[in-house]
Design brief:
The longest helix has 18 residues. Among the domains are: about 70 residues, SH3 Domains (SH3 type barrels); about 60 residues, no CATH class. A hairpin with an 8-residue loop joins strand 2 and strand 3. The radius of gyration is 52 Å and the shape is elongated. The strands form four sheets. Strands 6-5-4-1-7 form a five-stranded antiparallel sheet, with no helix packed on it. It has a four-stranded antiparallel sheet with strand order 10-9-12-13, with no helix packed on it. A three-stranded mixed sheet has the order 11-8-14, with no helix packed on it. The protein is of the alpha+beta class. It contains three helices and 14 strands.
Length: about 230
C-alpha cells in the first residue's frame, strides 16, 4: 500500500472513533423500560406538598372555655318530723301532701320573704309549698337567689258552735263560745284536721271530728250529751 493510501485509511479510522463518542449516538434501548418505571416509583413515594406544609405549620391555638358558674341549688329536708305541704305559702292554705321526715326536695321558687319554698311533691305529682322556718326544716343554698312566685290569697275557713255548751278544738286548745255569744261563737281556723270536745261533759270522746278545708264553715250541732242544735 502506498504511503498516501495508508494515511487516508488512518483518517477514516479516527473519524469512525470520534463518531462513536458524539452525543445522541447511543441507541434508544440504552435506557430500559424497567429503569424508567423505577424512577417513577421513587418519585411517587415522596410525601404530598400539603402534608409537608401541615407538618411544619404552626398549630392553631386551642380555644379555652371558662367554666360556667354553678347554678344556685336550694334544697329543703324534713328533719326530725313531718311537715305539711300546702297549696300556697302559708298555713291558711289547704294541706295537699306530707313532707315526711328524712325526705328532701329541690326548691323551684320562694315567697316574698323566703319563709316558704315551692317544691315538687316527693313521690307524687304537682307542686306545693313547705314552711322553711319550722324546727323540722333544714335548708341549704341561697334562698334569696330563687325566683319569687305569687299565689292567690287563701279562702278563710271557720268552725261555728251552734250549741249552748262551750267547745274545745284540738289541736290548738282553742275554745269556742256558745251560740248565745254570737258572733263570737264562730272562729277562723287554718285548714286541717281537728277534734271538737264539749267542755261541760267529762270524758275524752270528741263530739265531732272535722276535716276543714279552705272556704268551709263547719257547724257543731250536737253537744256532748247528744242534744241537737241549729244555728240561727
Amino acid at each position: 500500500m502506498k504511503r498516501k493510501d495508508h494515511l487516508f485509511a488512518i483518517l477514516i479510522l479516527i473519524a469512525a472513533m470520534l463518531a462513536c463518542n458524539l452525543p445522541g449516538s447511543q441507541p434508544e434501548e440504552a435506557v430500559s423500560p424497567t429503569e424508567t418505571r423505577t424512577v417513577v416509583n421513587i418519585e411517587s413515594t415522596l410525601p404530598p406538598t400539603e402534608t409537608a406544609v401541615s407538618a411544619t405549620s404552626t398549630p392553631e391555638p386551642t380555644a379555652t372555655h371558662e367554666p360556667s358558674p354553678t347554678s344556685n341549688v336550694v334544697t329543703i329536708t324534713a328533719s326530725g318530723g313531718n311537715i305539711n305541704i300546702r297549696r300556697g305559702p302559708g298555713v291558711g292554705y289547704n294541706p295537699i301532701a306530707v313532707f315526711a321526715n328524712g325526705q328532701s326536695a329541690v326548691a323551684a321558687a320562694r315567697n316574698a320573704d323566703g319563709s316558704w319554698l315551692n317544691i315538687s311533691i316527693p313521690g307524687g305529682s304537682g307542686q306545693g309549698w313547705v314552711n322553711a322556718k319550722t324546727q323540722y326544716s333544714s335548708v341549704t343554698g341561697d334562698v334569696t337567689l330563687l325566683p319569687v312566685k305569687s299565689v292567690d290569697a287563701p279562702k278563710p275557713a271557720y268552725i261555728r258552735n251552734c250549741t249552748f255548751h262551750a267547745m274545745l278544738v284540738k289541736p290548738g286548745e282553742i275554745k269556742i263560745k256558745e251560740q248565745t255569744y254570737s258572733p263570737d261563737n264562730k272562729l277562723q281556723f287554718n285548714p286541717g284536721n281537728y277534734e271538737v270536745f264539749d267542755t261541760t261533759v267529762s270524758g275524752n270522746k270528741p263530739v265531732r271530728e272535722i276535716n276543714l278545708r279552705e272556704g268551709d264553715t263547719i257547724d257543731i250541732t250536737r253537744d256532748g250529751l247528744g242534744n241537737p242544735y241549729s244555728c240561727p
